[in-house]
Amino acid sequence: MKIIITPIFLLLLMMFQSIHTIQTSEFTITEATIVQIRAAFKQNKLTSKDLVKFYIKEIRKLNPILRAVIEVNPDAVHQAQVADQERKANATKSRFGLHGIPILVKENIATKDKLNTTAGSYALLKSVVPRDAGVVKKLRESGAIILGKASLSEWAHFRSSLAPSGWSARGKQAVNPYLATFDPCGSSTGSAISVATNMATVSLGTETDGSILCPSGANSVVGIKPTLGLTSRAGVIPISPRQDSVGPICRTVADAVYVLDAIVGFDNNDAEATRKASKYIPKGGYLNHLISDGLKGKRLGIMRAYPYFGFANDTKTLNKFEKHFAVLRRSGATLVENLEVDNFSQIGSMFIGETIALVAEFKIALNAYLKELVASPVRSLADVIAFNKKFADLEKIKEYPQDFFLEAENTNGIGELEKEALMNLTRASKDGFEKLMKENKLDALVTPYAKGSMVLAIGGYPGISVPGGYDKNGAPYGICFGGLKGSEPTLIEIAYGFEQATKFRKPPPIK
To answer: pTM for the full model?
Structure first.
């Protein structure tokens, strides 16, 4: 049948296009939460394909400056189309919490697809992983779309003590989107920057000591560092199985909880740790703990005079956070202040053993990871060191020393020195943080920025960083709530209550 184009037909066509534009423009992707995106899906205001294409466009626009993403998944649009089809067919999977939601994962987390897993190093470029990381498998099962790989500090900041946060050979230097001269902090820099700037809905980071909590605060987003083993580390390029953790980095507490719900639980490839921690998962999941008055009745500890545990008697910092303490009190929390740690000088000296333990554990864990790869240019830490020496001028990059690598390579397993360090770290946790929390009946310890990260790291304890505001130069900072193992439900209530009472977060000033 031949269609005759008349002025009336053209008018009707223009009216239809106008109506379609109005309908799709009702929903704004920028800063949208998972709940809002899922509602837009349901109301046919948005498709996963449109969402993915929006983020790819933003990555192409912003990433040349911010360097938050190393690779975009070439199959992401196809995965989005599949999600749209599943939604139209009302498939069971389409009702899962992350269905059709694009997520960036840190580039040290394995994906068995066309993406590389290199920890930002050319040494592992084109290596082939045996399978998806445990957390990636769970993300796929929840219907999430793997949008790509977020940049990071090379080897999760365990190559060089002199390299700046956010630098890797492959990703170059990541930049804080709020203030270019401000440290993006930690190793999960790309994961934090990408969600802060709306290059993804949500992201995953990893932490050995501070690498979720610190970049989250420094880039005005929410980060959850879970209890050790609550999320699987299988398929993550390791530093220390004793301290490594995987957690969400998102713009809101609620989004972070959606992701946490999807990735927790047992994994046969990280069986011992995940089996032990699975007992902490609450019946019905973590979403039930998004309570607006979650601060009511909580006992929160503040330490004003101790390094590692908090403020270290920093008057300037203390003054900055007085307004935060006032919010906590007004919201119904009891603040237990000026806490003291018995024998602190002795306990504090035990923290020195962290590096001694980590370098030895790193060599053992990395060698095991590299040997399991299906294909790889390197098969040991010694191979990586040799590669870095040989290709120091690759891409004309600035060469940073390999001091952590060299120190690790010089270790010979877990000897007497390492055993003593490990014993001291265990004692520091038991006699320090755990005793403090239990004797004072605390629900959480409150610390500025990520100052308590070492305490949480060495003991395998959870923490949540929430945006705390901006300094006079516009640089963001966070406030951290840490607790005993398995206390995520309580910490979520506290963090969500604080977030809802303050709503400090605002998008970065980029165009």
So the answer is: 0.93
